[in-house]
């Protein structure tokens, strides 16, 4: 028997989902789009908090502007005449560097206020505010050195009117040029900070009903075995385990505080008593029942270094 789709209503749009048609009206579609947009804007992204990297990014952005101004001479600056022409043009790059560096100091306060969680929405707002922040000294510099504004009969209204024109025809184009560099460099040198405030963590598997909520301090280690993971933890001072169908990678995403000690093991640093042996045959010993797991050479230095920073019990 042939299958025929339901007749298409005039006020709804179809989405094909074989073997049935489902419909979404305009209001539901708008809500779906808004939900996805808000989800994107709230997505956490890396943030560059370190001074040296912020200086590096500022130097690259400023150097890019200097290159454009000196060698390409956009916005009619080719006709500008001065014995110090290239030196003056380089000043625009210096201003970009200086304003970016000052803005990152302000941005760090914002970052700390948001509990070190940086989202796409914050990044967009920050870049727009940086454009406004940088445009003020850049326009002033332009008026002083290129237009000799203060040697003319111009008044405050003329200065502000030119500022609006300058923003539209010069600041916006140069910032659009810097945008891909800005996005790439901040993502390249940034760090994704994982909030670690909760005292409990929920671990789950792929199969229905495979989930367990544990105190972080009770988790000992996770061992991978083919398509399964063995979760070792303490309960009532005894070591217990549960087996889920999952991967170490997925468990690492659920519990980012766990670190690799071996390609088949994740370990809770807070549960380690001591590391035995050298890098060739190291073992991790826990406080419970002489329990040990292997520590591979690849992760030996990382585990030893992190263990040294752990509070002593």
What does this structure look like?
The radius of gyration is 29 Å and the shape is elongated. The model is unreliable at 1-22 (pLDDT under 50). It has a 5-stranded antiparallel sheet. The protein has helices spanning 26-41, 51-72, 85-113, 120-145, 156-189, 248-254, 297-308, and strands at residues 13-17, 20-24, 200-204, 211-215, 219-225, 228-235, 238-245, 259-262, 265-267, 272-276, 283-286, 292-294. It is α+β, with helices and mostly antiparallel strands. The termini are far apart.
SS field, number of helical segments: 7
Sheet having the most strands: 5 strands, antiparallel
Quote the average pLDDT: 86
Whole-angstrom Rg = 29 Å
- The helix-and-strand class reads alpha+beta
Order of strands, widest sheet:
7-6-5-9-8
Amino-to-carboxy terminus distance: 73 Å
Summary of the model, kept short:
The protein is α+β, with helices and mostly antiparallel strands and 313 residues long. The protein has seven helices and twelve strands. Helix 2 (51-72) runs antiparallel to helix 3, helix 3 runs antiparallel to helix 4 and helix 4 (120-145) packs across helix 5.
What attributes does this structure have?
single chain, 47% helix, three-stranded antiparallel sheet, 313 residues, 7 helices, disordered N terminus, five-stranded antiparallel sheet, alpha+beta, 12 strands, elongated
């Amino acid at each position: 028997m042939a299958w025929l789709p339901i007749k298409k209503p005039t006020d709804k749009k179809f989405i094909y989902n074989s073997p049935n048609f489902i419909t979404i009206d305009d209001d539901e579609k708008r809500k779906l789009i808004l939900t996805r947009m808000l989800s994107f804007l709230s997505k956490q992204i890396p943030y560059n908090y370190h001074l040296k990297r912020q200086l590096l990014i500022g130097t690259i952005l400023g150097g890019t502007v200097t290159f454009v101004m000196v060698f390409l001479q956009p916005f009619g600056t080719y006709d500008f005449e001065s014995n110090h022409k290239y030196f003056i043009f380089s000043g625009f790059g210096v201003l970009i560097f200086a304003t970016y560096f000052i803005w990152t100091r302000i941005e760090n306060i914002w970052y700390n206020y948001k509990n070190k969680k940086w989202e796409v929405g914050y990044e967009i707002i920050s870049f727009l505010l940086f454009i406004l922040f940088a445009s003020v000294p850049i326009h002033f510099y332009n008026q002083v050195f290129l237009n000799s504004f203060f040697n003319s009969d111009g008044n405050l209204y003329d200065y502000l009117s030119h500022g609006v024109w300058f923003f539209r025809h010069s600041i916006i184009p140069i910032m659009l040029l810097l945008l891909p560099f800005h996005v790439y460099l901040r993502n390249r040198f940034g760090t994704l900070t994982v909030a670690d405030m909760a005292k409990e963590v929920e671990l789950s598997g792929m199969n229905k009903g495979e989930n367990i909520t544990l105190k972080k301090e009770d988790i000992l280690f996770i061992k991978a075995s083919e398509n399964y993971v063995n979760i070792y933890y303490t309960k009532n001072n005894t070591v217990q385990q549960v087996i889920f169908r999952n991967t170490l990678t997925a468990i690492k995403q659920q519990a980012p505080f766990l670190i690799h000690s071996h390609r088949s093991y994740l370990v809770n640093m807070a549960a380690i008593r001591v590391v035995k042996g050298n890098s060739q045959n190291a073992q991790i010993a826990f406080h419970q029942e002489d329990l040990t797991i292997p520590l591979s050479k690849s992760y030996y230095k990382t585990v030893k270094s992190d263990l040294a920073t752990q509070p002593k019990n």
